[in-house]
Amino acid sequence: MLIGCRGWSADSVIKNEQLSIEIEFKIMKYKIIIGCCILALVYGINSCKKKPLNKIEPVEENWVKLFNGKDLDDWVVKIKGHPLGDNFKNTFRVVDDVIQVNYDGYGDTFNNAFGHLFYRKKFSNYKLRMQYRFTGAQLKDGPGWATRNSGVMLHSQTPESMLLDQDFPICIEVQLLGGLDSGERSTGNLCTPGTHVVMNDELFTPHCISSSSKTYHGDQWVRLEVLVLNDSIITHVINGEEVLTYSKPQMGGGNVNVPEEQLKPLQGNPLKKGYISLQSESHPVEFRNIEILELNQQD
């Protein structure tokens, strides 16, 4: 009998049994806690494998070619002094997968026949990219400021609405300039025929402003990209570098030969969408790889 055991009493035996039970209970509780922690850890690791916290899934960009490299079927020409669709002297042509602005039929006389090649569709929210380069020599009677000068017109009026003798469409112009062998001459600038924009929270009314781009000499190809967000923000990018940003394109100002009585009632109206066109200003220029990515934004 336990009562007869040396050094033991009934009370001590009971206390020892209670202590053993408490120890076993605590061990079981800790095992349960540890088991739960292990399960949670395993679940967390598996979850991280399935959904990495810092991983951003790539979004496929559906860039569309505006120029097919073969013809100008999706484009329409408007040259000052000539009716819509009259590609005077074959100014705009396709050669070796590029759009050429070529004056070999002009007899070295430009006669201020500024021209624009419009894509057939309006756009509002998009990224536009292309490559351009200047070639050859300017026509002798071309304006001095037009030497190695062209442009890409955005948010433009319809080509059908241009007057017979109108030189430039009402639009936002991404001005393209080439170096003049010496000195600095930025490209990807902004000009505003019949329009204004906002810069640094103030209405910008001068006709042109230079970008922060480098100067590109010779006949090298230069990459142009433009981000256009409705009547909000427009950003110019040259060879991968952001060079100019502004906002709130709107009707206003001059520098376009449209009667004032037609322009004045429209001043301040936001430019939310419009046509894209390529410019002819008396110096030969080429464009290639013209593509657009439309963005899902509300007009």
Explain this structure to me?
Helix content is 15%, strand content 33%. The chain has 299 residues and is α+β, with helices and mostly antiparallel strands. The protein has helices spanning 10-50, 260-263; strands at residues 64-65, 75-79, 92-95, 98-101, 115-119, 125-134, 149-156, 172-177, 189-191, 195-199, 202-204, 208-209, 222-229, 233-238, 241-251, 275-280, 285-294. Residues 1-8 and 50-56 have low confidence and may be disordered. The protein folds into two domains: 2-50; 64-294, Exo-inulinase, domain 1 (Jelly Rolls). Strands 1, 3, 4, 6, 10, 11, 13, 14, 15 and 17 form a ten-stranded antiparallel β-sheet that branches. Strand 3 (92-95) and strand 4 form a beta hairpin. The N and C termini lie far apart (96 Å).
Beta percentage is 25-35%
Number of strands: 17
CATH-scheme architecture of the largest domain: Sandwich
Low-confidence stretches: 1-8, 50-56
CATH superfamily of the largest domain: Exo-inulinase, domain 1
The coarse overall form would be: elongated
- CATH C-level class of the largest domain is Mainly Beta
CATH fold-type name of the largest domain: Jelly Rolls
| Helix percent band | 10-25%
- N-to-C order of helices and strands: HEEEEEEEEEEEEEEEHEE
Radius of gyration: 35 Å
Structural class: alpha+beta
Largest beta sheet, briefly?
10 strands, antiparallel
Number of helices: 2
Q: How many discrete domains? A: 2
| Distance N to C terminus | 96 Å
- The overall pLDDT average reads 87
